[in-house]
Specification:
Blueprint: H1 4-11, E1 22-23, E2 35-36, E3 41-46, H2 50-54, H3 63-73, E4 81-86, H4 88-92, E5 104-106, E6 118-120, H5 123-134, E7 138-144, H6 152-162, E8 166-171, H7 192-206, E9 217-222, H8 228-239, E10 244-249, H9 266-269, H10 272-278, H11 283-290, E11 299-305, H12 319-336, E12 340-345, E13 355-356, E14 369-370, H13 372-384, E15 390-394, E16 408-415, E17 421-428, E18 434-438, E19 449-455, E20 466-467, E21 493-495, E22 503-507, E23 511-516, H14 560-577
Parallel strand pairs: 1-18, 3-4, 3-12, 4-7, 7-8, 8-9, 9-10, 10-11, 11-12
Antiparallel strand pairs: 2-15, 5-6, 13-14, 15-16, 16-17, 17-23, 18-22, 19-20, 19-21, 19-23
Helix pairs in contact: 5-6, 8-11, 10-12, 12-13
The protein binds 2-acetamido-2-deoxy-beta-D-glucopyranose (8 copies).
Domain Beta-glucuronidase C-terminal: 410-511
Keywords: Signal
Protein name: Glyco-hydro-79C domain-containing protein
Length: 578
């Protein structure tokens, strides 16, 4: 099935056996207790540019976008894809309560590129509801403005049209910057007290319960200047306990707001210890939150991150930053207590975006391009997919949590149900291949594992990226769907007979290896069902194969077990026919 010859040729130049195998040691049980799910990593979209990605209205929805989301959904089991819609633009743009096309319209004028005001209307919710239906499950977290007074009809429309796919309303965005961003010109110093007052008024306007009566508000969405612990202890948790579903932070490692001046260059993103430090931001507040009784504390989430705020660093599209670093930081957040995190995407031309639609007005025909951060969503879905939730531990491989010189790091993912090791995620940040020795203790009864590689030839590579032997990049993949299995991709590796003495495998450099130890190793190729066509969409945009048919054998409505069964059946056929 795989081209083994070209694989060994590819490895020859790097295969200097000077590096002894790195011994990975894995505690039998997790050292932490935070439970996360396959949809931990979601996508954050800036409100102003929703039409670029999804189309203008229900009659012009972008098929490539649905394909991208369907490929993520196929990796999540029964969990919905998480999408956050928000940002500065969502905090101060007016809502018009009559549906029209386009669903989001840029306001005319000269505005700060990082805060482009729009108007938006109920068509947005109708399109989002159709997207969720089409790919069989999206959970939306949507900013509701606080910088301007929120509008009750907006909240009603959202709850009515999105129904159970509306997961939460995130009230306000970065209130700790309201003074700096001149959102409160008549207040010299906008304080936490001012904020609490406005928050109460806003909740009274928009309500605090979803269609089933459960609390659905998220906040405070602070990014920079306020101390989470102080905000929580000043009464945020107690005052709003009957409203809050999420405690929201958003945080980038650095900003690129000052004409290209920023401290951290590409090598910084390849040092695992930096993700450890980064995830400690607001630690006292996080610890305070996690010390509250589990049954009634809101879940902690990061609603927006990427390589740098104000549009990212120029080398954001690189494999090192977009793919490896995004995953390392996301896993680190899972370790310290977050329940969800969202990779941000803005208007075309911003280097850190997950995908690039064709240039031109929203809905222009043409090829879509897959950027490196998109792979983070695919990998995280597969890495954290377990039947009862996952607990992630940083294994501190070779003191990588503190030593910036370490070139490899590793995480273990434990199954919350039986507390056994389900997956290992191993980063090789070096430019050369590296052997990793896995202990016998992580292999269950069968003594086998499947290793999938996320790899590229260099840290700077932007296009030639493969995951599990497959690529979503390059000139031949233009619709988010028609993936290729190029000869340069690192093929999957099956490990066997590892129950007694463990097993060693070689990871190319740079790469991420996902070692699948539980039954999911038998899943085989993950097949993405076609998105079902949105019911009132007649014409889809993009050059992709239109969304036709019902999704064939891997029908969207199949239960997880049926899909497993069907895939196993296909695999069996393949084995016996080749
Ligand atoms: C919401 O805003 C729209 C337009 O700005 C306005 O027509 C409508 O009356 C507002 N609704 C409420 C309940 O404030
Ligand atoms: C703003 O108010 C807070 C709380 O009262 C205070 O701690 C802070 O020093 C003030 N900042 C400025 C710039 O006045
Ligand atoms: C979407 O709306 C924009 C702005 O009005 C327009 O330029 C573009 O042609 C529209 N796209 C489609 C496919 O109609
Ligand atoms: C990392 O490498 C530098 C340069 O070789 C060295 O000076 C430093 O001591 C090393 N740090 C650790 C923690 O090993
Ligand atoms: C890997 O090679 C790139 C050039 O492709 C270089 O910039 C980088 O420093 C190298 N990384 C390591 C860890 O040697
Ligand atoms: C991808 O990388 C391979 C070798 O690693 C090279 O042969 C091929 O030309 C590259 N493709 C693109 C589109 O850069
Ligand atoms: C733990 O549960 C997973 C998922 O159901 C299963 O694949 C694995 O075999 C179980 N491990 C043990 C030791 O029972
Ligand atoms: C779909 O698009 C084609 C070509 O642009 C057009 O001829 C046709 O009328 C459209 N169909 C519908 C139902 O809008």
């Amino acid at each position: 099935m795989y081209s083994l010859i070209s694989f060994s040729l590819l490895l020859l130049p790097f295969a200097t056996p000077s590096n002894a195998a790195v011994q990975v040691s894995v505690p039998p049980t997790p050292s932490t207790s935070n439970v996360v799910h396959s949809n931990f990593l979601g996508i954050s979209f800036e409100l102003s540019f929703m039409t670029d990605y999804f189309g203008n209205d229900t009659d012009h929805m972008s098929t490539p976008m649905l394909n991208y989301l369907a490929a993520i959904k196929a990796r999540l089991g029964n969990n919905p894809v998480r999408i956050r819609i928000g940002g500065n633009s969502a905090d101060s743009s007016p809502y018009i309560d009559t549906a029209s096309s386009p669903m989001v319209q840029l306001q005319a004028g000269d505005f700060n590129a990082n805060d482009q005001p729009v108007t938006y209307n109920p068509m947005l919710w109708t399109v989002m509801a159709a997207v969720s239906k089409s790919i069989n499950g999206v959970a939306y977290l949507i900013n509701v403005p606080l910088a301007i007074a929120p509008n009750a009809s907006m909240a009603n429309d959202m709850r009515n049209i999105l129904g159970s796919s509306l997961d939460s309303m995130l009230l306000g965005n970065e209130p700790d910057l309201y003074t700096g961003h001149k959102k409160r010109p008549n207040v010299a110093n906008y304080t936490v007290d001012d904020y609490f007052g406005e928050y109460s008024t806003a909740i009274a306007t928009i309500g605090a319960n979803d269609v089933s009566g459960k609390q659905d508000i998220g906040g405070p969405s602070i990014c920079c200047n306020w101390d989470l612990g102080a905000v929580l202890q000043a009464g945020y948790l107690t005052k709003f306990s009957s409203a809050l579903k999420y405690i929201v932070l958003q945080h980038y490692p650095q900003n690129n707001c000052n004409g290209g001046k920023f401290p951290y260059q590409l090598p910084w993103y390849l040092q695992h210890s930096n993700t450890v430090t980064l995830a400690q931001w607001q630690k006292p507040g996080i610890d305070y939150l996690l010390s509250q009784p589990a049954e009634n504390r809101p879940q902690l989430i990061n609603s927006e991150f990427n390589s740098a705020s104000c549009g990212g660093v120029p080398f954001s599209p690189s494999f090192a930053v977009g793919s490896l670093w995004s995953i390392d930081y996301a896993l680190q957040m899972a370790v310290v207590g977050y329940g969800q995190a969202f990779l941000h995407t803005r208007e075309g031309g911003i280097p850190y975006n997950l995908f690039a639609p064709p240039v031109g007005p929203p809905g222009s025909a043409g090829a879509w391009k897959t950027n490196s951060p998109y792979y983070a969503l695919l990998v995280m879905g597969e890495a954290l997919r377990t039947d009862h939730g996952a607990i992630v531990s940083d294994l501190n491989l070779g003191d990588s949590a503190t030593n910036p010189n370490a070139t490899s790091s590793a995480y273990a993912v434990y199954n919350q149900g039986n507390k056994t090791v389900s997956r290992l995620i191993i980063f090789n940040y070096a430019n050369s291949s590296q052997d990793f020795a896995l202990p016998a203790s992580v292999f269950s009864g069968s003594g086998t594992a499947l290793v999938k590689f996320l790899s590229a030839a260099t840290p700077e590579e932007e296009t030639n990226i493969s995951w599990g032997g497959e690529t979503w990049s390059g000139p031949d993949v233009t619709d988010g769907k028609s993936t290729q299995k190029p000869s340069w991709a690192t093929p999957n590796k099956n490990l066997a007979d590892c129950g007694k003495n463990g097993c060693t495998f070689t990871a190319p450099g740079p790469s991420l290896s996902l070692v699948i130890l539980d039954d999911a190793q038998n899943l085989g190729t993950i097949i993405t069902p076609d998105p079902t066509p949105p019911s009132n969409s007649n014409n889809n945009t993009g050059t992709g194969n239109g969304a036709k048919g019902k999704g064939g054998a891997m029908g969207l409505d199949s239960s997880l077990t049926t899909v497993f069964g069907a895939v196993l059946a296909l695999l069996t056929l393949t084995f016996f026919s080749s």
